[in-house]
Design the sequence.
C-alpha cells in the first residue's frame, strides 16, 4: 500500500478522472496525457496511477501552463523504473517552481530532467534537486532557467547533494546582484566553476594559499608570490602549475587526487616552482626541435630539483611519490620521458631501458656542474635526438609535463615569437599580477557597488556639505604658531553597505574568529592580578602590614587595608577607532583594497571590543580642504556594535584626502568626554596626511604630530597603525606607531594590539 | 633595626666557568663597560644566550651575580627591600638589588620591560653619576659598592611598540646586541650543550633557520638556541628525531594549525630522511 494514497473521501480513480476532465479539450496536452496514461497503466496499479494523478493535478492548479504539463507527461511516460510517488514529487516540485519563478522556469527544469535523472538515481537524491531548485525559485527566481540549462554539469560534480549546496553557495556568493547571479548559475562566473571543481570536498588553492606561502617562506626566506590558475572561458582549470616572472600560479584544484594527498601535492608543486626560480635561468628557444624543447625542460626540472635537494634533502621524499611511470608502460615518447624523469630523481628506481640508462648516466656525469643552466640544453638536445631516432611519435602541443606537481615549463623559454595558443596563457599569467574583481576577498560584488557620496572629489556646494560639528586650530609650520579655527569638521552621512558580505568575509578568514575569541576571553577574565592594600584578602600585604605596625607603634592611625587579594583588574578603557578612507585606500594589495582590509580589521576589532564589554566609538574620515573634514559616525559610544553598524562599515568608500590632524583632534575630544581611566585613539592610516589646499604635506604631518602630543598631554594615548609603506613614526612617535607591513595580517594584528594596549 | 645583609649572596659567586661561546666582540665590550662601571643593556631575542653571557662575565670578572627576573607585579620594594615584622620590632630586609649594591655584585635584571615603569625608575639613581640607591622607607641612601654594576636584558621584539622602556631609562645604558649566532657557531653550541654529534646539531640549526624565516609572519619569534638544545637533548635521551622536534619546537612555538603544518613540512624538507611530524 502506498503511503499517500488517495484519502477516504476520494474513491480510487477520482484524481485521474479530474485530470482527464480538466484537460479534455486541450489540444496542447491531451495527446501527451493519453500517451502517458497508456504507458503508466501498463506498468502500475490503479492506486499507483492515482498517486501520480494527484501530483499532476497540483501542476495544473499551479497554472504551470500547457507546455509544462506536456513536458511532465512526456517525462512520466519515458521514465522507466520510476515509482509513482517519485514522479508525483517531481510534479509538486515543478508546481512550486512555477509558482515562484513562472512557468518558463518550470518548463526549463522539466526539460532538463530526463538528462538529470541519470545523476539522480533515487527519490532521496531527487529531494536534494528539488530543494535546491525551489529555494532558488523563491529567493532568486531569475537564476532557475540558467541553472536548469547547466544542471548536468552541476550534477556531474557530485549528484543531488552537490546540486543543492551549489545553489546555496551561489545565493551566498552573489548577494543581491542579479547580473552576477545569472552569470553564476550559467557557470560563467569563475567562482561557480571553482566551486564545482571542488565539489568533492577536496582542498583547493584558496584553502591552502596561506599554508603554502608560509611553507615557501620557511624554506627560502622570502614569501613566494602565488596566484590561482584558472581555465580560460569555460575550460577546466589547467592541471599544471605555471610560472611567469616571479609569480607562481598553481591550479585552483587538482582533479582526481585523493583529499589527503592534496596538501602535499601543492607543496610539491610549490617547491618545484621555487627550485626553478632559485636555480633556473631563461633560455632562448632559437632553432630547436619540439622533442628537444620537451627534453631540455625535463633535464632542467631534474637539475633544479637536484640542486634544491642538496639544500633541502627532505624534498626528495616530497617529490618521489608522484613519479609513477615504470618499465612495462606503453612505449611512447611521453611515457619514456616520464620514466627518465623518475630515474633522475629517485635513486632507488630501477629501469633497464637503454634510453633511460643513458639519460641517467649523462646526468650523473654532470653532477659536478649542475649549477650550469646550459647543461639542460646540452643533455636535453642529445636525448631529444635519441628519442627521435627511436621513431616514437611526439606532439609538443599535446605533451604535458609529468608528473603532476611539475610546471608547464613555459617559463624556461624566451620565445622569439610566442606560439599563438600559448601566448595568451602567458599574457594571462602576467595579468594575474594585477588582481581582477573576482579576486577581491570581501565577497562584495564590484560591478554594482553604489557610487559613494564621499567617493567623488566633486566640488560641494555649501548646503550639500554636512552639518558642522566642530572647529579646530591647525599648526602653521612656517609661522610656528597655531591658526585658530582653521579646520571645520562636518558630520557626513554613513550609507549602509552589504553587512552580510562583510560578515562572510570575516568568517572566511581561517582560524580568525577563534583567535579573536581567545583574545576576548583573556580580556574578560582579565589577568589575575595581585591587588595590594585591600581591606581583605588571602594573604597579608607585607608592605602595608609593616606600615600599619609602624603606625601603631608610633601612635599613628594605621591604614587597615593590609591584605593582598587576587582579583581581576577592572578594564576601564574608552577608545575611538579612527579609519582613514582617503583615496589612497583604494590601492590594491593582493586581492583586496586597503580599505577593504581596514574594514575587515575594524569589524573584527569592534566585535571583539563589544564582546569584551569595552566602551568605544568608530569613526571614519576623509577631507576635501580645510572647510570640509568629513567624519563618518559608524558607531557612537552609546550604541551597540550591531548589524547597522556593520552595514555602515561595509558602506565605506575610498575617496578624497587625509587631514589627519583635524580628525585626531576630533577623535581625541570625543574620547576625552568619556569617563574612563584609560583613553585611547587608534588611527588606522595608510600614509602621510595630505589635502587639496596644502602644498607641502609636511605641514599636515607636523600638525598631526602636534595634535597627538597635545592629546597625550591631556591623558589620551594616540596610537597609529600604519599600513604598508614606510612606517612613519613622525606623527605618532616611534613607540606609538605600529607598522603593519603585511596588509593581510592587519585584521588579526589590530585586535591583538588593542588587547595589549588596553591591558592596564 | 638590624640589617640582614645577604649571606646568601656569597653562594652566587660563580666558581666554574660557565660555557659561553663568543659570537663577536661582546666579551671585550662588556669588560670595557664594566671597567667604567657603565650599566649595560643586552638586547636580543629570547633564548639566544644573554643570561648565559652574564653568568660567564660574572665568572670572568670574579664578581658575584644577582639575577632578578622582572614581571608585571614586581614592585620597587621587591627590588629594594622592605620592613618585616619580628617579635622585637621591625626588621629591614634588603631586596636583591640593594644587596647587590652593598656587596659589589653584578645585578642582572632580566626582561626589564615586563616591570611597571614606576618600578623601573628605582634604578635611575644607580645608573647615573650618583651611583647610589635611596631607600625612602628606611631613610637611607646606599652608595654603590665600587664593584657594583647593573645589567639589564631587553627583547626588542614584537611588543616594543606597546611596552617600552622610558626614554630616560634607555639612555642610561650602553647596549650590546645579541642574535642567534651564525649556523656553524650555533651548531657548536648545540653540540656542546646537549652533547650530540655535529651532524645532528647542524640539522637542528637548519630547522631553527626554517622557523626564523617565519619571524614576523605569524611567528612572533623563531625557534631559539634554547629550543634547539632542548630538541637535541630529547634525541640524546632516546627520543626519535621527529618526536623530539615536535615536542621541543613545533608544539611550543605556535598554536595556529596552518602555521604548524607549514613549518612541519618545511622542517621535514630540510631534514635528510623524511621525518614525519
Ligand atoms: N653563545 C652561547 N654560548 C653558550 N651557550 C649558549 C650561547 N647562546 C645560547 N646558549 C645556550 O642557549 C641557552 C639559552 O640561553 P639563555 O638562557 O642565555 O638565553 P637568554 O637570551 O637569556 O633568553 P631569555 O631572553 O629568554 O632569558 C643557554 O642555556 C645555553 O645553553
Ligand atoms: Mg618545471
Sequence:
Amino acid at each position: 500500500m502506498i503511503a499517500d494514497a488517495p484519502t477516504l473521501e476520494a474513491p480510487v480513480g477520482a484524481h485521474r478522472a479530474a485530470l482527464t476532465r480538466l484537460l479534455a479539450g486541450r489540444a496542447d496536452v491531451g495527446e501527451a496525457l493519453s500517451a502517458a496514461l497508456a504507458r503508466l497503466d501498463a506498468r502500475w496499479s490503479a492506486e499507483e496511477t492515482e498517486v501520480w494523478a494527484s501530483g499532476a493535478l497540483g501542476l495544473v492548479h499551479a497554472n504551470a501552463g500547457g507546455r509544462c504539463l506536456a513536458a511532465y507527461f512526456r517525462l512520466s511516460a519515458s521514465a522507466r523504473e520510476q515509482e509513482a510517488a517519485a514522479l508525483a514529487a517531481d510534479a509538486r516540485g515543478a508546481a512550486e517552481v512555477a509558482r515562484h519563478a513562472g512557468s518558463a522556469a518550470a518548463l526549463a527544469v522539466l526539460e532538463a530532467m530526463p538528462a538529470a535523472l541519470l545523476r539522480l538515481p533515487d527519490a532521496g537524491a531527487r529531494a536534494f534537486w528539488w530543494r535546491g531548485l525551489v529555494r532558488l525559485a523563491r529567493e532568486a527566481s531569475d537564476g532557475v532557467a540558467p541553472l536548469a540549462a547547466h544542471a548536468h554539469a552541476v550534477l556531474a560534480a557530485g549528484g543531488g547533494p552537490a546540486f543543492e549546496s551549489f545553489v546555496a553557495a551561489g545565493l551566498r556568493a552573489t548577494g543581491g546582484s542579479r547580473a552576477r547571479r545569472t552569470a553564476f548559475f550559467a557557470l560563467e562566473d569563475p567562482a561557480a566553476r571553482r566551486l564545482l571543481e571542488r565539489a568533492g570536498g577536496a582542498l583547493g588553492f584558496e584553502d591552502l594559499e596561506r599554508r603554502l606561502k608560509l611553507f615557501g617562506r620557511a624554506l627560502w626566506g622570502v614569501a613566494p608570490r602565488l596566484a590561482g590558475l584558472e581555465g580560460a572561458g569555460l575550460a577546466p582549470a589547467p592541471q599544471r602549475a605555471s610560472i611567469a616572472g616571479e609569480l607562481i600560479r598553481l591550479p585552483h584544484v587538482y582533479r582526481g587526487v585523493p583529499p589527503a594527498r592534496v596538501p602535499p601535492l601543492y607543496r610539491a608543486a610549490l617547491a618545484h616552482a621555487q627550485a626553478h626560480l632559485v636555480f633556473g635561468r631563461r633560455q632562448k628557444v632559437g632553432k630547436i626541435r619540439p622533442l628537444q624543447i620537451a627534453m631540455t625542460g625535463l633535464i632542467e626540472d631534474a637539475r633544479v630539483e637536484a640542486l634544491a635537494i642538496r639544500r633541502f634533502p627532505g624534498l626528495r621524499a616530497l617529490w618521489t611519490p608522484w613519479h609513477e611511470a615504470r618499465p612495462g608502460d606503453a612505449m611512447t615518447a611521453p611515457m619514456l620521458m616520464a620514466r627518465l624523469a623518475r630515474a633522475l630523481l629517485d635513486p632507488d628506481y630501477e629501469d633497464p631501458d637503454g634510453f633511460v640508462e643513458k639519460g641517467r648516466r649523462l646526468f650523473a656525469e654532470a653532477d659536478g656542474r649542475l649549477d650550469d643552466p646550459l647543461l639542460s640544453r646540452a643533455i636535453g638536445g642529445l636525448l631529444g635526438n635519441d628519442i627521435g631516432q627511436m621513431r616514437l611519435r611526439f606532439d609538443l602541443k599535446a605533451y604535458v609535463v609529468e608528473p603532476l606537481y611539475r610546471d608547464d615549463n613555459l617559463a624556461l623559454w624566451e620565445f622569439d615569437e610566442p606560439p599563438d595558443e600559448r601566448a595568451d596563457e602567458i599574457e594571462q599569467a602576467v595579468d594575474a599580477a594585477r588582481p581582477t574583481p573576482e579576486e577581491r576577498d570581501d565577497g562584495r560584488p564590484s560591478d554594482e557597488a553604489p557610487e559613494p557620496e564621499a567617493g567623488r572629489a566633486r566640488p560641494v556646494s555649501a548646503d550639500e556639505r554636512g552639518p558642522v560639528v566642530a572647529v579646530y586650530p591647525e599648526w602653521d609650520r612656517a609661522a610656528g604658531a597655531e591658526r585658530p579655527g582653521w579646520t571645520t569638521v562636518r558630520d557626513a552621512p554613513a550609507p549602509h553597505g552589504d553587512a552580510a558580505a562583510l560578515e562572510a568575509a570575516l568568517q572566511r578568514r581561517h582560524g580568525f574568529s577563534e583567535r579573536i575569541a581567545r583574545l576576548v576571553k583573556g580580556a574578560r577574565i582579565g589577568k589575575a592580578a595581585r591587588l595590594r592594600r585591600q581591606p581583605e584578602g588571602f594573604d597579608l600585604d607585607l608592605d602595608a602590614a609593616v606600615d600599619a605596625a609602624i603606625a601603631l607603634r608610633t601612635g599613628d592611625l594605621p591604614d587597615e587595608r593590609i591584605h593582598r587579594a587576587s582579583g581581576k583588574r577592572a578594564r576601564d578603557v574608552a577608545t575611538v577607532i579612527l579609519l582613514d578612507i582617503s583615496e589612497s585606500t583604494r590601492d590594491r594589495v593582493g586581492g583586496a583594497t586597503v580599505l577593504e582590509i581596514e574594514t575587515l580589521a575594524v569589524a573584527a576589532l569592534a566585535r571583539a571590543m563589544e564582546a569584551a564589554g569595552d566602551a568605544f566609538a568608530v569613526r571614519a574620515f576623509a577631507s576635501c580642504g580645510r572647510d570640509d573634514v568629513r567624519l563618518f559616525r559608524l558607531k557612537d559610544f552609546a550604541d551597540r556594535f550591531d548589524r547597522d553598524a556593520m552595514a555602515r562599515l561595509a558602506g565605506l568608500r575610498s575617496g578624497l584626502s587625509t587631514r589627519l590632524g583635524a580628525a585626531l583632534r576630533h577623535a581625541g575630544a570625543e574620547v576625552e568626554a568619556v569617563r574612563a581611566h584609560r583613553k585611547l585613539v587608534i588611527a588606522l592610516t595608510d600614509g602621510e596626511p595630505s589635502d587639496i589646499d596644502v602644498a607641502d604635506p609636511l605641514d599636515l604631518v607636523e600638525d598631526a604630530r602636534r595634535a597627538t602630543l597635545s592629546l597625550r598631554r591631556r591623558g589620551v594615548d594616540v596610537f597609529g597603525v600604519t599600513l604598508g609603506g614606510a612606517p612613519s613614526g613622525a606623527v605618532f612617535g616611534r613607540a606609538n606607531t605600529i607598522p603593519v607591513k603585511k596588509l593581510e595580517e592587519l585584521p588579526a594584528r589590530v585586535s591583538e594590539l588593542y588587547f595589549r594596549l588596553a591591558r592596564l | 633595626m638590624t640589617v640582614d645583609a645577604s649571606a646568601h649572596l656569597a653562594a652566587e659567586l660563580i666558581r666554574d666557568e660557565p660555557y659561553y661561546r663568543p659570537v663577536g666582540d661582546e666579551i671585550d665590550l662588556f669588560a670595557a663597560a664594566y671597567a667604567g662601571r657603565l650599566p649595560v643593556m643586552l638586547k636580543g631575542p629570547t633564548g639566544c644566550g644573554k643570561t648565559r653571557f652574564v653568568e660567564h662575565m660574572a665568572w670572568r670578572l670574579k664578581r658575584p651575580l644577582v639575577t632578578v627576573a622582572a614581571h608585571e607585579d614586581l614592585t620597587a620594594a621587591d627590588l629594594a627591600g622592605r620592613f618585616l615584622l619580628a617579635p622585637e620590632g621591625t626588621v629591614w630586609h634588603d631586596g636583591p638589588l640593594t644587596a647587590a649594591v652593598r656587596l659589589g655584585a653584578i645585578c642582572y635584571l632580566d626582561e626589564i620591560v615586563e616591570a611597571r615603569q614606576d618600578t623601573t625608575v628605582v634604578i635611575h639613581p644607580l645608573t647615573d653619576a650618583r651611583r647610589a640607591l635611596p631607600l625612602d622607607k628606611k631613610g637611607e641612601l646606599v652608595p654603590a659598592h665600587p664593584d657594583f654594576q647593573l645589567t639589564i636584558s631587553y627583547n626588542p621584539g614584537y611588543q616594543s611598540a606597546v611596552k617600552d622602556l622610558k626614554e630616560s631609562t634607555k639612555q642610561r645604558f650602553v647596549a650590546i646586541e645579541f642574535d642567534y649566532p651564525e649556523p656553524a657557531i650555533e651548531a657548536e653550541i648545540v653540540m656542546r650543550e646537549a652533547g650530540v654529534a655535529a651532524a645532528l646539531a647542524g640539522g637542528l640549526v637548519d630547522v631553527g633557520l626554517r622557523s626564523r624565516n617565519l619571524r614576523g609572519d605569524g611567528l612572533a619569534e623563531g625557534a631559539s638556541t634554547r629550543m634547539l638544545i632542548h630538541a637535541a637533548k630529547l634525541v640524546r635521551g632516546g627520543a626519535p628525531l621527529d618526536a623530539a622536534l615536535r615536542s621541543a619546537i613545533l608544539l611550543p612555538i605556535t598554536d595556529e594549525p596552518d602555521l604548524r603544518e607549514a613549518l612541519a613540512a618545511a622542517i621535514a624538507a630540510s631534514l635528510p630522511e623524511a621525518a614525519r611530524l
Q: What stands out?
A: Chain A touches chain B through 47 residues (CB under 8 Å). The two ends of chain A are 74 Å apart (CA to CA).
